[in-house]
């Protein structure tokens, strides 16, 4: 059974929950650049943010396909899961590579909402998507690590208790492969915030609660290390496949929202005494957007099936992210063109969703980087970077 066909009860529950949060709610959050705390609290209370946490730790114990269904439905309803989706895609790294002690300490509190794991610290100002060139260091000193460096585009750090952090534990010049010497840490930011950790908000064109982080001799216990020291790059790649699949599901939800919004408007809006949807110039872009969405949805469904069966589908996860983000952006362009001038008015939500959809051409992995991956690792073309 594909993820699209499955989890109908979850989809119905999310749809019902999202009806409590109208377009006006999201417009106000967007206008004020405010974190949608009421929405996140409601998702937490209903257990949806603990979907991927095993039952033994207080979660629902569901597969990634359930997480994808949750995020898709949020976006299909006109909402934005960007405020909370990291708790799902960081969970894969913790579940697959975290210690029993880490899981017992943190997962029950994350499941019941007493702790939030929403921040993922990887990207840096000087290295961007060249992850192996990151400069943030973590030096072992007895029973602790000392962290120094900077991260950027670490979204929701101000609204998270825990941070999944990638840092270099062995200098780049001392490793035989540049992917070696990187380690993952699960950092309790409550212990260091305002002391050795500084969080600085970055205002962006969409309401995404993103920040940059500064570590100044930040001391964290050695027990913060996830898995083995120096093996973090592999752990992060595994987590990134889950991230790309979940973000792709959000893009499918966005595409469905744009298509539904445009279809309804095209049937209702009359110009020259006829509905504009009667014109092929309006019909065809909507039909094409739908076709692209369905193709991307099928790719995503296949990739999620592979992931849930225990595989690590790099090719399929990247293709799903590429096709789904392209489909959502094409649907966004189509929708705003269908609405014409009204598409730029705040009250219709089209311009807000248009700005939000644009993000996924760039993050969490840029379209060009996905194409480079496919060219080199799938087609065998020469490495371009």
List keywords for this structure.
46% helix, 12 helices, Butyryl-CoA Dehydrogenase, subunit A, domain 3, Butyryl-CoA Dehydrogenase, subunit A, domain 2, 385 residues, four-stranded antiparallel beta sheet, Butyryl-Coa Dehydrogenase, subunit A, domain 1, 3 domains, 10 strands, alpha+beta
Assign the structural class, choosing from mainly alpha, mainly beta, alpha/beta, alpha+beta, or little secondary structure.
alpha+beta
Largest sheet: 4 strands, mixed
Mean pLDDT: 94
Tell me the name of the CATH homologous superfamily of the largest domain: Butyryl-CoA Dehydrogenase, subunit A, domain 3
Tell me the helix content: 40-55%
Whole-Å distance between the termini? 39 Å
Main sheet strand line-up: 1-4-5-8
Strand content: 5-15%
Q: Quick one: CATH class of the largest domain? A: Mainly Alpha
Query: In CATH terms, what is the architecture of the largest domain?
Result: Up-down Bundle
What does this structure look like?
By secondary structure, this protein is α+β, with helices and mostly antiparallel strands. It folds into three domains: 8-111, Acyl-CoA dehydrogenase/oxidase, N-terminal domain (Butyryl-Coa Dehydrogenase, subunit A, domain 1, Orthogonal Bundle), CATH 1.10.540.10; 117-230, Butyryl-CoA Dehydrogenase, subunit A, domain 2 (Beta Barrel), CATH 2.40.110.10; 234-378, Up-down Bundle (Butyryl-CoA Dehydrogenase, subunit A, domain 3), CATH 1.20.140.10. The chain is built from twelve helices and ten strands. Strands 1-4-5-8 form a four-stranded mixed beta sheet. Strands 2-3-7-6 form a four-stranded antiparallel beta sheet, with no helix packed on it. β2 and β3 form a beta hairpin. α1 runs parallel beside α4 (64-76), α6 packs antiparallel against α8 and α9 (280-308) packs antiparallel against α10 (314-339). The longest helix has 37 residues, at 232-268. It is globular, with a radius of gyration of 21 Å. It starts with 7 loop residues before the first helix and ends in a 7-residue tail after the last helix. The model has no long low-confidence stretch (mean pLDDT 94).
């Amino acid at each position: 059974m594909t993820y699209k066909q499955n989890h109908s009860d979850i989809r119905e529950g999310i749809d019902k929950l999202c009806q409590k949060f109208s377009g006006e709610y999201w417009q106000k959050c967007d206008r004020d650049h405010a974190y949608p705390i009421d929405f996140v609290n409601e998702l937490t209370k209903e257990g949806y943010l603990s979907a991927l946490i095993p039952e033994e730790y207080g979660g629902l114990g569901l597969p990634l396909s359930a997480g994808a269904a949750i995020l898709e439905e949020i976006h299909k309803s006109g909402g934005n899961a960007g405020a909370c989706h990291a708790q799902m895609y960081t969970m894969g790294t913790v579940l697959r590579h975290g210690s029993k002690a880490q899981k017992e300490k943190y997962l029950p509190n994350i499941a019941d909402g007493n702790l939030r794991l929403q921040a993922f610290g990887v990207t840096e100002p000087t290295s961007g998507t060249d992850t192996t060139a990151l400069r943030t260091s973590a030096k072992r000193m007895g029973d602790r690590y000392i962290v120094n460096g900077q991260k950027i585009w670490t979204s929701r750090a101000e609204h998270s208790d825990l941070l999944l952090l990638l840092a270099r534990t062995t200098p780049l010049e001392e490793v035989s492969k540049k992917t070696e010497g990187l380690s993952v840490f699960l950092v309790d930011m409550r212990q260091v915030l305002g002391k050795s950790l500084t969080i600085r908000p970055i205002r962006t064109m969409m309401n995404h609660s993103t920040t940059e982080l500064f570590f100044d001799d930040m001391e964290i216990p050695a027990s913060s290390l996830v898995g083995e020291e120096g093996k973090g790059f592999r752990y992060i790649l595994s987590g990134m496949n889950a991230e790309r699949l979940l973000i792709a599901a959000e893009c499918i939800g966005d595409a469905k929202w744009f298509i539904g919004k445009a279809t309804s408007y095209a049937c209702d809006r009359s110009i020259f005494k006829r509905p504009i949807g009667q014109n092929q110039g309006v019909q065809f872009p909507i039909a094409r957007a739908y076709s692209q969405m369905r193709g991307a949805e099928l790719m995503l469904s296949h990739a999620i099936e592979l992931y849930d069966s225990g595989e690590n589908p790099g090719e399929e996860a990247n293709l799903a992210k590429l096709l789904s983000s392209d489909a959502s952006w094409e649907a966004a362009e189509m929708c705003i063109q269908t609405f014409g001038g009204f598409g730029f008015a705040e009250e219709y939500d089209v311009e807000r969703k248009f700005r939000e959809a644009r993000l996924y051409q760039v993050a969490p992995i840029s379209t060009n980087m996905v194409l480079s991956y496919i060219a080199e690792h799938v087609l065998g073309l020469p490495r371009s970077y």
